[in-house]
């Protein structure tokens, strides 16, 4: 006897992954998010240097 019963119908597709899973597993989305984060940090560093110098 099967330990877990499959309640899906035979031809039914599994549900699509949720948004957080898609973001964690999609390399293009991760690359865009890392690029945005790095750019934001760079802008903050430049802004802090400029405000300290002026």
- Structural classification: mainly alpha
Helix content: 55-70%
The ordered H/E elements are HH
Measured between the Cα atoms of the first and last residue, the distance is: 76 Å
Overall average pLDDT: 83
β-sheet strand percentage: under 5%
Unreliably modeled segments: none
Number of helical runs? Answer: 2
- How many β-strands, per DSSP? 0
Main sheet, how many strands, which sense, barrel? none
Rg computed from alpha carbons, rounded to a whole number of angstroms = 23 Å
Q: What spatial form do the alpha-carbon principal axes imply?
A: rod-shaped
Structural description of this entry:
The protein is mainly α. The chain has helices at 19-25, 27-53. Helix content is 63%, strand content 0%. The termini are far apart. The model has no long low-confidence stretch (mean pLDDT 83).
Question: What can be said about this structure in brief?
Answer:
The protein is mostly helical.
What are its keywords?
54 residues, mainly alpha, 2 helices
Question: Helices and strands in order, then pairings?
Answer:
Blueprint: H1 19-25, H2 27-53
